[in-house]
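Worked problem 6 (solution included).
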Amino acid sequence: MHRRHLYGLHSAPVHAMLAYIMKPIALSIMAAALALATAGSASAHPHVWVTTKTAVVYGPDGTVVGLRHAWTFDDMYSAFAIQGLEQKTKGEFTREELQSLAQVNVESLKEYDFFTYAKANGKKTVFEEPKEYHLEFDPKATTLTLHFLLPLKTPTKAKTFNLEVFDPSYFVDFQPAEKDAVELVSAPQGCQLATTKPQEMTKELARRLAEIPADGQIPENSWGAQFTSKISVQCP
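Solution. The predicted structure is:
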């Protein structure tokens, strides 16, 4: 996979997590992002940090029907995203003011498989378009959180359901929240949830990541999968 030029310069397709700030007001954001990309510390990966919460949602018949994601972007990236947006109250944004931004975000995610990789009974899960999406701004932390429901194309009764959320290129770092990172919603009685933490970053891995330029080439799935939590659900 070739790294897209940061923030879509040269009209190349942008990375999904960066795509939602591509709007008419984005010229100043591009300039700021370019400054980050050329700064010495920004040559390392990742470039964007996301804290995740995920709910595995079950239907009345005991099938897995979808995933409800809540992804909180780091404060610097959030600042770029909201720069120039109209707001009625300074320092605050309503859902309505952020809705067009949320729409661009979720529409961009499809190209990257929603950064969500799941298997039901050992078979790859296919997702439909995101639904019930919105962005929420936290004025105290100055961060954006994207909420959306990711429905399964075919609801499945799964004795085993395995899930990972990651960017294969490790351009975006996804890490679970410290509390309530994963939950089961309306799961059949007896279903058990387990999570496995990712490996810790070593000095050698950090050095190798730092040597990759922003537009460098990374073999598919060689990085992101190493630093993601693995979620598994076992049902009777």
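Discussion: The helical segments are 16-19, 27-38, 75-82, 95-109, 203-210.
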